[in-house]
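EI: anyone free to look at a 202-residue chain?
SC: sure, send it
EI:
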Amino acid sequence: MKTATDRTMNASFFQRLDPGFKLALLSGFSILLFFINRLDVTVAALIIILFLYKAAGFFFMRAWQQIRPIWWLFVILFVLQLFVSHWQNSLVIVLRFASLLLLAGLVTLTTPVSLMMETLERSFHFLKPFGIHPAKISLALSLTLRFIPLLGQIIHDVHEARKARGLEGDIIAMAIPVIIRTLKMGEDVATAIEARCYDGDA
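SC: here you go
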């Protein structure tokens, strides 16, 4: 049976990185991709993220699994953007979205939620004198990152269910069960937090 020390030694370098550094990397990539609207930069960022998956000990298939449930949303987004922009700008938007989802997924795959919350809580500690509770902010942001792949899975499940019934063409009708299941998931999480008597003031 492996001890915690053994698991740490066998972990990839990305898993051993400080959670604060990984969250800073995610923020930096987000700012870079949103403010530099260039196809070559976006493609380069995507390639770097894929190699980070490899360096973290995951096969490229694991990266594909992160976005596979919502691949059709990328297609729809690309087509819609073609009506208002050039194809290169449409491709930049789609690749940017995919890159951010992949990087957020990699951070959650390699960082325990407890460490992520602890890091975020320290980062927002300066807000405490203003009546804002760092623990509650860290919980909200941690859950947001954690729910990104879960939301993708919900969309995939609903899409497959409607496809089996021959109803995949109606996007609006599909959005309703996705919203309902997402709200239900949020309600379940809220109930679980309340049942554990979580208090951000503690």
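EI: The first helix runs from residue 4 to 10.
SC: 👍
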